[in-house]
Write a structure and sequence with these properties.
The chain is α+β, with helices and mostly antiparallel strands. It contains 9 helices and 17 strands. The two termini are 18 Å apart. It binds FE2/S2 (inorganic) cluster (FES) and fe (ii) ion.
Length: 398
């Protein structure tokens, strides 16, 4: 087990000359490429926290379903006959086969394993198991799909693979309170982009958490919302009331109205926007892997799903008020196109960082005064390593 001092070396290399609690050194590279670190992070961060995995309207009717890959786990979400959302490990209880192979579907009556045809109803109960009658120690009711916790907010579906622990409101309630004044649940999907980025998931979170890079990397973003505009107003925190989100807002220059190619929009605004909101874009990270970015006329969501220590699938979704989507000629390409350009600029620099993290010369760098939330995220993560005796000890120290 690493001592706190050993674990802390990841973020606070010796010789930095600053107190461990407020180090201004960036992390050692190992946390970005070590498979053991990712294995531990999946267990600790992705399988024990609430994750935003989809939209309730993807599961509108009885038997509608989606599957999702979360690290090495596949999960299955569906709506049962009483209208209740249900979530399960997508794992046959016979010999462990993945039960549902499709990404989504509608109106399923049951889920039938492709191997030996054990079948499960929409509540996860095992309802068919050929040649199992009379088998010793076998009772169908003991072999339902393993359930996972499912909850909803803002029209989004959230899951937690840990059976016990804080409910969704305890984890994100204070974040939800900030946005309950908007009808987030009524927004509808208007576009979606999927990327595979050759970078560790944390590099993508770090990139989203600062705009220090915006002038050199994103001229079109910086034109609309200059990098020094706005403020951070939330940070991750372990102690006192635990805080699982971080972020703030940026402000439009001149009379710009939204993050679109022109900076202007004729779409209806998200209802509930005040004059102050209309001059801002709100950007938050919901730990560990959801980015929530509310613009005057749309909500943008990023989900980052680790595929390997150096590869992350990023899903980027755009939600608009229904009256915008239903208007004749609805065309979100001014927003989605701009963000596609910004995303690709980000992935390029994230991939360059990933390469650097494997360098034998890398010993951690030094944060600027524009990277408060990157530092906060890195400290939050490293504090989690410290707290868990099973966290991997880095074989290569700084
Ligand atoms: S593994 Fe599913 S029925 Fe055999
Ligand atoms: Fe960026």
């Amino acid at each position: 087990m690493p001592s706190p001092a050993e674990a802390g070396r990841l973020l606070h290399p010796p010789g930095g000359g600053v107190p461990a609690a407020r180090s201004t050194r960036t992390p050692d590279g190992q946390i970005y490429w070590d498979p053991e670190v990712l294995r531990w992070e999946l267990e600790q961060f992705f399988y024990r926290n609430w994750l935003c995995v989809g939209r309730e309207d993807e599961l509108a009717g009885t038997g509608d379903f989606v599957t999702r890959q979360i690290g090495r786990e596949s999960i299955l979400l569906t709506r049962d006959g009483t209208g209740t959302l249900r979530g399960f490990y997508n794992l046959c209880r016979h010999r462990g086969t993945r039960v549902e192979l499709e990404a989504s579907g509608q109106g399923a009556k049951s889920f039938i394993c492709p191997y030996h045809a054990w079948s499960y109803d929409l509540t996860g109960r095992l309802i068919g198991a050929p040649h199992m009658k009379g088998q010793t120690d076998f009772d169908r009711k003991d072999y339902g799909l393993h359930p996972i916790r499912v909850a909803g907010w803002g029209g989004f579906v959230w899951v937690n693979l840990e059976p016990a622990g804080p409910d969704l409101a305890a984890s994100f309630g204070s974040f939800f309170e900030r946005f309950d004044r908007f009808p987030i649940g009524a927004l509808r999907l208007g576009g979606r982009q999927v990327y595979e980025v050759e970078a560790n998931w944390k590099i993508i979170v770090e990139n989203f958490s600062e705009c220090y890079h915006c002038a050199p990397v994103h001229p079109s973003l910086n034109r609309l919302t200059p990098y020094l505009s706005g403020d951070n107003d939330a940070a991750f925190r372990h102690d006192g009331p635990r805080s699982m989100f971080s972020g703030g807002f940026m402000e439009f220059a001149q009379d710009f109205q939204s993050m679109t190619r022109s900076g202007y929009t004729s779409r209806p605004r998200v209802p509930g926007m005040t004059a102050e909101d209309l001059k801002r874009v709100y950007y938050y990270v919901l730990f560990p892997n959801t980015f929530f970015s509310l613009h005057p006329d749309y909500l943008m969501i990023h989900h980052g799903w680790p595929i390997s220590p150096s590869r992350t699938r990023v899903e980027n979704e755009f939600y608009f008020p229904p009256e915008a989507i239903d208007a004749p000629g609805f065309d979100p390409s001014d927003a989605i196109g701009l963000w596609d350009e910004i995303n690709r600029q980000d992935w390029t620099v994230c991939e360059l960082v990933q390469e650097g993290m494997a360098s034998r010369a890398w010993r951690g760098g030094h944060f600027s005064d524009q990277e408060e939330l990157v530092q906060n995220f890195d400290e939050f993560v490293v504090d989690e390593y410290r707290r868990d005796p099973s966290a991997p000890r880095p074989p290569r120290g700084p």
